Amino acid sequence: MRAAFASAAQPRPNGPVTDAGNLVWGRQLRPNILLPSPLKLTVEKRVKPVLAAASPAEGSDSAGEAKVAPVGFAAKYPALVTGFFFFMWYFLNVIFNILNKKIYNYFPYPYFVSVIHLGVGVVYCLASWAVGLPKRAPIDANILKLLIPVAVCHALGHVTSNVSFAAVAVSFTHTIKALEPFFNAAASQFILGQQIPLTLWLSLAPVVLGVSMASLTELSFNWTGFISAMISNISFTYRSIYSKKAMTDMDSTNLYAYISIIALIVCIPPAILFEGPKLMQHGFKDAIAKVGMTRFITDLICVGLFYHLYNQLATNTLERVAPLTHAVGNVLKRVFVIGFSIIIFGNKISTQTAIGTSIAIAGVAMYSYIKAQMEEEKRKAKTA
């Protein structure tokens, strides 16, 4: 009997963890946490004498007591870590939108700025790969064929979003982009052939109504900004469709890095074609004359870095939470961006625009909640 307890209390090695139940947030827990509760107290009483009688082994100190690796902060306080991720995601997103709009106020060239966003992100990815954080995942021709459509849609959606940001108020662009769930639902039913429940369609009615109300009385409205935001919605919808077809075993960080590289290659030709001559004639000179060379270059580098980091943090954050939390987080992010942009830029909005925006955001929240509940039910049905 004593031998049995000695075996049960033997400390586990600090090497690779083969027991899935021994892993929480990527860190190994104390072995005795995993013991059944009836045995735990008995083992705690007997473990010291048993180990003391045995000869000292690797992983034990001179007194014969097992050395246990300390539990990290992330494993001890997972809720705090997840909350910090959410905070940084929102913070970086708000800063990106504000700085992006400030750049357009003195440098109205969205195609070139889109290239800078992706270019800075690609440099960041290459530097991360160079130091092995993360290690670069291999890519072959088959994976590349799957990722190209995703990257093309990502590039088109990103550029048209920036065209809209440059043309109208940030808050209005985000209000239009609240229609993205409507396009996703339509594509799922009419392109992928997935049956969308009536309750989900009904939840989208306030979104359409709210965006329509906001658009009719938006003071900064122009067709370039409106149409560009709508094209962005369609592009990101197709990106979602192609992403489902391009499921690979590659981790999200490497996947986003490869998509960014391809998207950058796609964005460079239209930037040269549509804005190249203007930039060479007076675009760069006018921007430098207004804010100076140092601020101009610093702004471009910072906005690109904020763009990449907020997207990367969004992916890392959403991987840590349940679908419902994911949905709520996305809705709140849009509320934060719209609110802060109105405050920072002092945009004047009509009462009808404010009501329409509120209705649209409420509709997105309702849609996200219903869809998250459906996803959770599907997950439970599969695991049952």
Gyration radius (Cα, Å) is 26 Å
What value does the average pLDDT take? 80
Shape: globular
**Amino- and carboxy-terminal Cα gap:** 38 Å
Order of helices and strands: HEEHHHHHHHHHHHHH
- Give unreliable regions as ranges: 1-63
Number of domains: 1
Class per helix and strand makeup: mainly alpha
What portion of residues belong to β-strands? under 5%
| Main sheet overview | 2 strands, antiparallel
- Main β-sheet, spatial strand arrangement: 1-2
Number of helices: 14
Binned, the helix content reads: over 70%
Q: How many strand segments?
A: 2
Main location: plastid
Organism: Asparagus officinalis
Keywords: Chloroplast, Membrane, Plastid, Transit peptide, Transmembrane, Transmembrane helix, Transport
Subcellular location: Plastid, Chloroplast membrane
Could you walk me through the main structural features you see in this protein, from its secondary elements to its overall organization?
This protein is globular. The longest helix is centred in the C-terminal third of the chain and has 40 residues, at 252-291. Helix 9 packs antiparallel against helix 14. Residues 1-63 have low confidence and may be disordered. The relative contact order is 0.13. It has 384 residues and is an all-alpha fold. The protein starts with a helix and ends with a helix. The protein is 76% helix and 1% strand. Strands 1-2 form a two-stranded antiparallel ribbon. It has one domain (83-383). The chain has helices at residues 2-9, 37-53, 73-76, 78-106, 110-130, 141-167, 170-177, 180-190, 198-217, 223-245, 252-291, 293-318, 323-345, 351-383; strands at 23-24, 27-28.
